[in-house]
């Protein structure tokens, strides 16, 4: 687990404030603090844990601010390592909380579901994907996903300027990792806050949820968002400030690497589907190459891997490289042959 780095002055009124994620291999989330003429604004808040809250409060104190002085928080997306402390922040200050409307909708839906409904839906997904019952039972016995503590009160759409007097901070909608993921461009500071959309080493998770739905195309959205972010003015010289790992430059180059990774994965999936073969999501996912051998992966990691594979299959359907074969028990996928065959 990486060591949590210190609070750091990045210049131009920007501070990085690492907030730990106890027990998680990611180690920490970078919360960024931007100073304006009427109080600081946060980008993300961090994980909901006493140690995380202490790090946020003490970090703000180190740069001369109390938690009650925070003007607002812009959330890059709804995941708990980015939104977990919104409830404590709202209780301790008058801060507004902003997020893209698509992720506000997801947050409202997640908060409306009770635990039994969530577990029932998850069981249906696992069985539809073809997972063994032992895997399904193990995943259901684990902790449930925690939705964001509060619903943001300020929708922030693509291109809109953040309420940060004296600064020019604008939303850049980059769907894929989540439907409403935002990057944030600090036009008066030459900085791009990339959230989880572009990371310097790992490729962000892009999954299809529910697992076997044919609604939407998150990977297609993600690749289009990568292309759009790569085409930003001065993309190669912008200082990129991600939520994890380290800051970097060379945005266009990194975005192209991420896009290339997903194209390679699509080809690997097609290689698993020779003529006449139809396979379930579980069969395809378990046959792919992963950082850790499939047999050694936790059931939660297998579920995430299946969601990622499903997103690739959904894109392959859109490109007419595969076809979904509906079945009474579960869907299967086969490679398209004939006029649409890319070979």
Automatic annotation (TrEMBL):
Gene3D superfamilies: Ribonuclease Z/Hydroxyacylglutathione hydrolase-like (3.60.15.10)
Stretches the record annotates as Disordered: 112-131
Organism domain of life: Bacteria
Compositional bias of kind Basic and acidic residues: 112-124
A Pfam family hit: Lactamase_B
SMART domains linked: Lactamase_B (SM00849)
Domain Metallo-beta-lactamase: start-end pairs: 28-244
This protein's name: MBL fold metallo-hydrolase
């Amino acid at each position: 687990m990486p060591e949590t780095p210190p609070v750091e002055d990045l210049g131009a009124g920007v501070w990085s404030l690492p907030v730990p994620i106890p027990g998680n291999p990611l180690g920490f989330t970078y919360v960024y603090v931007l100073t304006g003429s009427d109080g600081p604004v946060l980008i993300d808040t961090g994980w909901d844990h006493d140690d995380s809250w202490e790090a946020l409060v003490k970090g703000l104190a180190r740069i001369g601010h109390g938690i009650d002085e925070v003007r607002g928080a812009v959330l890059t997306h709804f995941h708990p390592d980015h939104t977990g402390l919104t409830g404590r922040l709202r209780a301790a200050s008058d801060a507004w909380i902003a997020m893209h409307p698509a992720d506000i909708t997801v947050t409202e839906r997640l908060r409306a579901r009770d635990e039994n409904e969530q577990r029932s839906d998850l069981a249906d997904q696992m069985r539809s994907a073809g997972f063994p019952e032992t895997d399904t039972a193990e995943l259901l016995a684990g902790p449930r996903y925690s939705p964001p503590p509060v619903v943001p009160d300020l929708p922030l759409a693509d291109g809109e300027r953040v309420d940060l007097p004296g600064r020019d901070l604008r939303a850049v909608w980059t769907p894929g990792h989540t439907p409403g993921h935002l990057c944030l461009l600090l036009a008066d500071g030459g900085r791009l806050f990339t959230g989880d959309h572009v990371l310097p080493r790992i490729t962000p998770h892009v999954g299809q949820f529910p697992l076997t739905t044919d609604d939407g195309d998150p990977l297609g959205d993600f690749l289009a968002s990568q292309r759009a972010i790569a085409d930003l003015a001065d993309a190669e010289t912008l200082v990129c400030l991600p939520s994890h790992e380290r800051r970097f430059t060379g945005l266009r180059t990194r975005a192209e690497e991420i896009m290339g990774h997903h194209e390679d994965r699509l080809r690997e999936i097609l290689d698993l589907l020779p003529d006449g073969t139809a396979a379930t999501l579980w069969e395809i996912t378990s046959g792919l190459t992963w950082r850790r051998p499939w047999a050694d992966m936790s059931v939660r990691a297998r579920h995430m891997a299946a969601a990622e594979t499903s997103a690739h299959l959904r894109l392959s359907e859109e490109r007419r490289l595969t076809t979904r074969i509906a079945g009474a028990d579960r869907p299967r996928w086969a490679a398209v042959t004939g006029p649409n065959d890319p070979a």
